[in-house]
């Protein structure tokens, strides 16, 4: 029906609609309260929301774009569990369809594309948010006891945080063409906003190379250096890379998507994560949007990652990102060579 619209624009428009639906699934699982937490590895968990949102995204995109290569964080699920027909999205965002495709992306074919899907980025924050939604203290305590990875210190910090961590949760769909992220979607299922006088939950941020970004109001970086980094996957090497930045503040938040949003909205200057913990699905969509806004996301050696179908999944040499080249260079110059070698040789 929209065959005259270049593929990359159609795919981005579909991804916006699909991410909105996946966000609703994420909220519905939370409302039901049965999170179905599975431990995939150390500090690495999956919930029913991760599984269902992934099925929704992959099945919806594969049905409309059969020759796309789609790689999702929860891929080991393949063929298990059913895709509820209500999850199959064939809507397509009409506003995105109106975008003028840049000349260099007009001829892109499905075979040139790899879509990287993180159905739920910030799973730690999601599960901790669930805990905090239990208003009854006894219920909350019982749930805490079934969360093996939440220490008492965290539990107390969560209580003081006014249940705020759910905003860190995002749905990420990144579109790479010939190994480079050129378009992407970050959907925030728990973002609270007022649209035309009505309270609305959720928002969707998008970016396309050569066109720009939308779904939020970009803001310049803070006056002094503010670093954003992990709040749930730190270690001594990660901390060492923060120390050298001479930052006025360190913003510890969940998810790669939410951290890049902190850069785009002017709350932080640089995202530093000197750890091999992030994977290609964590950074593809954020990198596409950040670079469409004039920013840069690389490893901590300053090299770009490649996002082809056969690359290794982990971002072995960490993440270094900023809203502009100056801030990126500022950070890169400060990372000690020894630290770069530590990650490169791991
Ligand atoms: N040490 C580690 N082990 C497993 N996953 C890690 C990790 N460090 C980072 N990640 C993944 O990278 C993403 C961002 O992490 P963080 O919030 O700590 O910055 C999260 O994605 P998911 O929540 O999609 O799994 C998280 O799981
Ligand atoms: Mg995960
Ligand atoms: Mg993730
Ligand atoms: Mg995830």
TrEMBL record:
<feature type="binding site">
    <location>
        <position position="120"/>
    </location>
    <ligand>
        <name>Mg(2+)</name>
    </ligand>
</feature>
<dbReference type="InterPro" id="IPR000760">
    <property type="entry name" value="Inositol_monophosphatase-like"/>
</dbReference>
<dbReference type="InterPro" id="IPR020583">
    <property type="entry name" value="Inositol_monoP_metal-BS"/>
</dbReference>
<protein>
    <recommendedName>
        <fullName>3'(2'),5'-bisphosphate nucleotidase 1</fullName>
        <ecNumber>3.1.3.57</ecNumber>
        <ecNumber>3.1.3.7</ecNumber>
    </recommendedName>
</protein>
<feature type="binding site">
    <location>
        <position position="121"/>
    </location>
    <ligand>
        <name>Mg(2+)</name>
    </ligand>
</feature>
<dbReference type="GO" id="GO:0005737">
    <property type="term" value="C:cytoplasm"/>
</dbReference>
<dbReference type="InterPro" id="IPR020550">
    <property type="entry name" value="Inositol_monophosphatase_CS"/>
</dbReference>
<dbReference type="GO" id="GO:0046872">
    <property type="term" value="F:metal ion binding"/>
</dbReference>
<dbReference type="InterPro" id="IPR050725">
    <property type="entry name" value="CysQ/Inositol_MonoPase"/>
</dbReference>
<feature type="binding site">
    <location>
        <position position="118"/>
    </location>
    <ligand>
        <name>Mg(2+)</name>
    </ligand>
</feature>
<dbReference type="Pfam" id="PF00459">
    <property type="entry name" value="Inositol_P"/>
</dbReference>
<keyword id="KW-0460">Magnesium</keyword>
<keyword id="KW-0452">Lithium</keyword>
<dbReference type="GO" id="GO:0046854">
    <property type="term" value="P:phosphatidylinositol phosphate biosynthetic process"/>
</dbReference>
<feature type="binding site">
    <location>
        <position position="282"/>
    </location>
    <ligand>
        <name>Mg(2+)</name>
    </ligand>
</feature>
<keyword id="KW-0479">Metal-binding</keyword>
<feature type="binding site">
    <location>
        <position position="73"/>
    </location>
    <ligand>
        <name>Mg(2+)</name>
    </ligand>
</feature>
<keyword id="KW-0378">Hydrolase</keyword>
<dbReference type="GO" id="GO:0004441">
    <property type="term" value="F:inositol-1,4-bisphosphate 1-phosphatase activity"/>
</dbReference>
<comment type="similarity">
    <text>Belongs to the inositol monophosphatase superfamily.</text>
</comment>
<dbReference type="GO" id="GO:0008441">
    <property type="term" value="F:3'(2'),5'-bisphosphate nucleotidase activity"/>
</dbReference>
């Amino acid at each position: 029906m929209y065959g005259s619209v270049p593929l990359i624009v159609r795919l981005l428009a579909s991804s916006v609609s699909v991410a909105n639906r996946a966000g609703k699934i994420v909220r519905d699982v939370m409302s039901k309260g049965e999170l179905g937490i599975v431990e995939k590895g150390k500090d690495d968990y999956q919930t029913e929301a991760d599984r269902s949102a992934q099925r929704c995204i992959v099945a919806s995109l594969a049905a409309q774009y059969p020759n796309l290569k789609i790689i999702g964080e929860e891929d080991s699920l393949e063929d298990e569990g059913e895709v509820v027909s209500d999850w199959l999205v064939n809507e397509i965002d009409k506003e995105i369809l109106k975008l003028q495709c840049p000349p260099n992306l007009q001829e892109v074919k499905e075979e040139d594309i790899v879509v990287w899907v993180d159905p739920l980025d910030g799973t730690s924050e999601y599960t901790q948010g669930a805990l905090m939604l239990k208003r009854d203290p006894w219920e909350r305590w019982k749930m805490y006891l079934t969360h093996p990875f939440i220490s008492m210190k965290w539990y107390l910090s969560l209580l003081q945080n006014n249940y705020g961590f759910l905003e860190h949760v995002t749905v990420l769909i990144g579109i790479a063409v010939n190994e480079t992220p050129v378009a992407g979607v970050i959907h925030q299922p728990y973002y609270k906003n007022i649209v035309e006088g009505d309270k609305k939950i959720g928002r969707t941020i998008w970016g396309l190379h050569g066109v720009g970004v939308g779904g939020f109001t970009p803001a310049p970086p803070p006056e002094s250096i503010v670093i954003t980094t992990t709040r749930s996957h730190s270690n001594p090497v990660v901390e060492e890379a923060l120390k050298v930045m001479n930052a006025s503040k360190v913003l510890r938040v969940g998810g790669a998507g939410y951290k890049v949003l902190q850069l785009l909205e002017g709350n932080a200057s640089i995202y530093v994560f000197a750890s091999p913990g992030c994977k290609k699905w964590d950074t593809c969509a954020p990198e596409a949007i950040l670079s469409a806004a004039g920013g840069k996301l690389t490893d901590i050696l300053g090299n770009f990652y490649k996002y082809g179908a056969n690359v290794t999944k982990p971002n072995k040499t960490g993440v270094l990102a900023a809203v502009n080249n100056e801030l990126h260079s500022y950070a890169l110059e400060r990372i000690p060579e020894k630290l770069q070698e530590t990650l490169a040789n791991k």
